[in-house]
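PROTEIN DESIGN WORKSHEET
SECTION A - STRUCTURE
LENGTH: 237
TOKENS:
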């Protein structure tokens, strides 16, 4: 099994071809290129470990304090940094929409969904209190959902810092018209896929938030885990 070709190469190739075909049939003013990209079949590639998830303390949406490791080990985890009032269409709302689409697909396969969790972690603990995160989550955070989706925050920016820094997420609060700290947070959108051991195995940026790709990556990690579990241990067999 080889490492998967870079997402950038495969998506760019698909977009280039779609642009050529779109030009041949021009007539729909403003129509964007058609998506011709096909996700690599699950289990036919490997996702190398990139880094370990950092340590820290977080609040869940019920206000309970936990070690962050509780939410990034034991299951395959899809993690997104966000803040509840973000309105950038290619920012937090895009990540939320993509994860919601992916959730629906996983929920239709309960044998997969039970082995996966989603995590949304706020960049803004000052405004995104546990209560605010609970309102934002609505029924998505229900404990009896097949796929568990956790909406987390921290006690302060100071407690958030090691988590954001550990994932390489730089954050900048933009000033308002009077030069005072405003409510708009500048950050690069990234969604992280972690294995059951808490290791980051893929990082998706805005251009790469493709539900089919993410679904196959999740299946690939689960298949990897199943193969490892099926191997005889030393001293057996």
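SECTION B - SEQUENCE
RESIDUE ASSIGNMENT:
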């Amino acid at each position: 099994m080889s490492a998967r070709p870079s997402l950038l190469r495969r998506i760019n190739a698909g977009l280039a071809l779609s642009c050529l075909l779109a030009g041949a049939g021009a007539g729909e003013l403003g129509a964007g290129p058609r998506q011709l990209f096909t996700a690599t079949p699950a289990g036919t590639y490997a996702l190398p470990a990139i880094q370990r998830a950092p340590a820290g303390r977080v609040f869940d949406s019920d206000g309970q304090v936990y070690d962050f490791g509780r939410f990034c080990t034991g299951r395959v985890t899809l993690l997104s940094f966000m803040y509840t009032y973000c309105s950038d269409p290619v920012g937090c709302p895009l990540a939320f929409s993509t994860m919601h689409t992916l959730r629906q697909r996983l929920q239709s396969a309960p044998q997969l969904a039970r082995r996966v969790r989603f995590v949304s972690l706020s960049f803004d603990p000052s405004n995104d209190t546990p209560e605010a995160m609970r309102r934002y989550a609505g029924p998505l955070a229900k404990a009896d959902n097949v796929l568990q989706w956790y909406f987390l925050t921290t006690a302060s920016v100071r407690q958030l810092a090691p988590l954001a820094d550990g994932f390489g997420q730089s954050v900048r609060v933009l000033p308002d018209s009077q030069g005072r700290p405003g409510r708009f947070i500048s950050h690069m959108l990234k969604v992280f896929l972690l294995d059951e051991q808490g290791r980051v195995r893929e990082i998706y940026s805005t251009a790469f938030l493709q539900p089919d790709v993410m679904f196959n990556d999740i299946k690939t990690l689960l298949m990897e885990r199943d193969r490892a579990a099926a191997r005889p241990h030393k001293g057996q067999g």
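SECTION C - NOTES
Residues 8-36, 179-184 have pLDDT under 50 and may be disordered.
The chain is about 30% helix and 25% strand.
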